[in-house]
Amino acid sequence: MALWIYVSLSKSYSLDISIPLEIKTGKSQAVTEDMPSSIDVTVRGKGWDLLSVLISKDLKYTLDLSKYKRDTKIATEQLVSERINLKPDVSLVTIDTDTIDIEFDKILEKTVPVKNNIKVNLREGYGIVGTPKLTPDSIEISGAANVVSKIRYIPTEVRIFENVNAPLSGTIALKDTLPNSLKYSIKFVDFRYNIQLSAEKTIEDVLISVNGVPDDKEVLVIPPKISVSVRGGVDQLARIVPSDVSAMLEFDAIEEDTLGFIVPQIVIPEETTLLKSEPQKLQYIIKKKF
User: What is the pLDDT of residue 64?
Assistant: First the structure.
C-alpha cells in the first residue's frame, strides 16, 4: 500500500483549486465593485507537490492597491505563481479570471443593525422569555459609498441549537459576504436567550380605566373588571402582581363606536404573552354629569 501511494504521488496531475483573493487598500481607498472572494485556477505538478498545495494555509492571491491612485485593470496572470506562493515544480495551466477591474470611490461609514440568524429549537414545554439579545445589536461598516449605501443590515452566521431547556448564551461571528468591499468595526457579537419552563397565569379583577373622559361626562363600563391570562416563564410569572396588568379604553373610541361594544387595550409585563381576556368585549353607558 505504501509503495502504491508513493508511486501514485510521483506522477503528474492537474488540479482545480479555488484561491482566496485578498485585497489590501490604503486608508483613503475604497473599492466600488463587489470584488470576487476567490480565483479559480488549474495547476499541474507531481502528486506530492499538489498535496502540499491542498494543505497549504498560506495559499492566497494578494492584490495591494495602495500604490494605485486611479481606476485600473489588473491582469491576474502577471506574477501569479509568486502571488499565490506556488512551488517552482507546480505550474499554472489556466486561470478563470484574466483581469480584475478596480474602481475607487469615496469612503462612507454608517451604522447598521445586526440580523440574528440563530435558530433555537426548544424542548417541549419550554419557551423563549422576551426578545433574544444581541450585544451589540448594531455595528459600524465602511467601504465604497455606492456599496455601503445599499447595505441595510449585517447578518450573523447561521447556527442551530436543538432541544434547548435552559438559558442560552455565547458568541457568534458576523457573516462577511463582501470581504474585499466592506470593513466591519467588529467581527463577533454576543447572544443571549432567556429560556424557561413555560406556564400560564390568570390575573383576576383587572379594573377597566377610561382615558380622556370630558369633565361633564362619565362612563360606566359593563363589567367594570375583567380577568387576563398570560403566558411566560415560570420565574417571570411568579413575580407578576395584579398592578402589573392594566386594561384601558379611550373615550374617543367609545364615542365613535357603532357596534355597541368595545375591546379594551390590555397592557401586560414585558417578556409575557397575552393569551386572552374575559370578557373580550365590553359594553358601556355614557352619562352626563349634572
Answer: 74
